Amino acid sequence: MPARFRELVPFLLAAALLAAVGRAFWLPSEQPADFVFVNGTEPKSLDPQLITGQPEGRIAWALFDRLVRWDPDTLEVIPALAERWDVSDDQRRYVFHLRRDAVWSDGVPIDAPGIVAAWQRFLDPATAAEYAYQLWPVRGAKGYSTGLVAAGALIEVELDQHDPERPFARGPLVRGEAAWVGSIDSEGLRTASDGPGLFGGSDEAGLLVEVDGVLYASPEHPLVVAGEAIAARAALPDFATTVGISAADEHTLIVELAEPTPYFLHVCGFYPLSPVPMHVIEQHGSPGWTKSDAIVCSGPYRLHSRRLRDRVRLVRNETSYRSDEVQLEVVDALAIDSGTTALALFETAAVDWATNLPPFAAKLLIERDDPTLRLRSELSIGFYRLNTTRPPLDDRRVRQALSRALDRSTIVNAVYGPGQPTSLSFVPEGMEAATGYAPVQAAAEDAAEAVRLLAEAGYPGGEGFPKITITFNADEGHQMMAELIQAQWKSRLGIDVELASMEWGAFLDAQSRLDYWVARAGWTADYVDPNTFLDMFVTDGANNQTGFSSPAYDRLIAEASRTPAGEARDAVFAEAETILMDELPVLPLFMRVSKNLVAPWVTAFPENPLDIHPLEAIRVDAPTRDRARQARRLRGGGE
Question: Cβ of 528: how many Cβ atoms within 10 Å?
Answer without folding.
Answer: 19
